[in-house]
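User: I've been trying to design a sequence by hand for this structure and keep getting stuck. Would you show me what you'd pick, starting by listing the structure so we're on the same page?

Assistant: Good idea, let's start from the same input. This is the structure you sent:
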């Protein structure tokens, strides 16, 4: 049974931090693949800074390229809004019975997990792989059978910083996969 890490996010835009984390998980954990789940709208975040979901999907698709360890999914585009992780996990699990799905999240999201819809069901039925974010204190996490902290490199890059910097006219091509940077410029995004 293939073990798939589901990496949810708005990816607004996808950047080298996202790609490095995904790469780390397929190389240094027991995950066989990472699927990027592009979320149309996180119920816990404001929508005002989001560009259209199709642009965000396209950027992740460009970043993933032909790397067979990764897949990009628009599954949440066709589900009721806002998207809830438990609903997506249930949907994917029912349709992919030969795959074991796990959740990949940053330690900053672990802190708010108790606010998620049916979070107890997520903890009970799915493994959660947590990677450290700035300010993370490993001692604050009560690891359980289903919650595992993976010592991935700390990535202090944010999509917010990238969006703001593009708006200011800064040259950020090394913060983004090259073809994603080209796409942002071609589509005149975040200006």
């Amino acid at each position: 049974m293939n073990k798939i890490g589901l990496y949810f996010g708005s990816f607004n835009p996808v950047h080298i931090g996202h790609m490095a984390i995904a790469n780390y998980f397929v190389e240094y954990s027991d995950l066989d693949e990472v699927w990027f789940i592009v979320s149309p709208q996180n119920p816990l975040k404001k929508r005002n800074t989001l560009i259209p979901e199709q642009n965000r999907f396209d950027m992740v698709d460009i970043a993933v390229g032909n790397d067979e360890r990764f897949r990009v999914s628009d599954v949440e585009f066709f589900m009721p809004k806002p998207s809830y992780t438990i609903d997506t996990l249930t949907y994917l699990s029912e349709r992919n019975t030969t795959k074991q799905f796990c959740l990949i999240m940053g330690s900053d999201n672990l802190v708010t997990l108790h606010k998620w819809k049916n979070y107890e069901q997520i903890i009970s039925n799915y493994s959660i792989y947590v990677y450290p974010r700035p300010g993370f204190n490993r001692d604050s996490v009560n690891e359980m059978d289903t919650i595992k902290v993976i010592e991935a490199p700390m990535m202090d890059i944010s999509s917010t910083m990238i969006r703001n910097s593009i708006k200011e006219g800064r040259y950020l091509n090394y913060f983004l996969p090259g073809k994603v940077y080209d796409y942002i410029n071609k589509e005149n995004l975040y200006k």
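That's my pick for every position. To get oriented when you compare it with your attempt: The first strand starts at residue 2 and ends at 9. Residues 2-157 form a domain with the Rossmann fold fold (CATH 3.40.50.620).
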